[in-house]
Amino acid sequence: MKLWDKGTPIDVIMEQFTVGNDRDVDVRLARWDVVGSIAHAEMLGAVGLISNDERKSLTHELGLLLVSIDGEGFAIDDDVEDVHSQVEKILTEKLGSTGKKIHTGRSRNDQVLVDIKLFLRHELRTLRLATRDAATLLLDLAERYQHILLPGYTHYQIAMPSSFGLWLGGYAEALIEDMRVLDMAIDAANANPLGSAAGYGTRLPLNRELTTRALNFDRVHVTSTFSQMSRGRTEKLAAIAIAQVASTVARFAADVVHYASLNYGFVKLPDDLTTGSSIMPHKKNPDVFEVLRARCNRLQALPTEIGFVLGNLPSGYHRDLQFIKDKIVPAIDELTLILRILVHVSPKIEPVSDILDNPMYANLFSVDRVDQLVLSGMPFRDAYHQVAQEIKEGAVITSIERSTTGALGSVGNPGIEELRKRL
Question: Dihedral of CA 214/218/224/228: which sign?
């Protein structure tokens, strides 16, 4: 069954090639297709395009179908092209000619648009909660380990004292900022395209504000042309948000891989988080963090991939757009898994408490020595040159009496409570 079928045979190989993975991905959109159809049926009844009895029949059967999808899943018959056709087929089998009226004032174009927006709005909100959980966990760990010092590096060279509180708190703050990017993507998905039909509207007296309220959208896409152009645009913004979270997790995973190596020795990983070698008995490989890094880095390519699909498309609908759908849906699943693994493994990272006892970190506190002189009244540049000369003459500045205060975001004041408020 094809909603556009006019009875003319088509080439089978061409059909198989153009459909791609569409039917598989459509199963994930089924509940949202039904939700959108319920709102559409209610609106058709409200404006008099179908009778009240027809409205009741349609919404009743759609409601039963929604319960079935949520409880048992959804399948598209072998002879049916997509989720939209399957839903209409079910309604027609149940209700006869009344079922055929569900597509009144609608195109598959605005139908898939509303499905994708509802799906993305829901899934991105779920990802936002998962990102918040990860940020909360990292803040808890930052608070637990805030007094354990850690050498800071710039240019891969020893720089200044840091702490595990600053390190973990920094990644928590990064995830909090990433939630803002997710909010942007959620907002892009929170606009109603239903009623724009094939991208040029309809002469039928549809009430688009009614479906906007029914589907709890923030606003309506006013022009039908932009409604259609939002296809791909919405997914790209979702991909940017997904990639942003993935970027943060990838950098964290990369840090752990470095920090767990014997060359650094900043953290220890338990045996159950490491793998071995088939030839070297001593190996404890941080595979889970390497795989986290790789999975995240693949996701960072997604906005570029979607951008290339959109890059040379004029306005209006084009079949190219279906090949965005089968990228964004798996990406959401992938980031969901990544965040779940991050929350699972992060508490098992054990900081090493005596890192700075290593003589290689001599002079790590040189800036503290400069600050000490500044607090005594010496101009900063003079203090800088004095400490540089002391080091040149062989002085080793291994420690300074440390304060438990300091500027917000420093070792003595990592700002964990401020981040909790922000979260």
Answer: negative
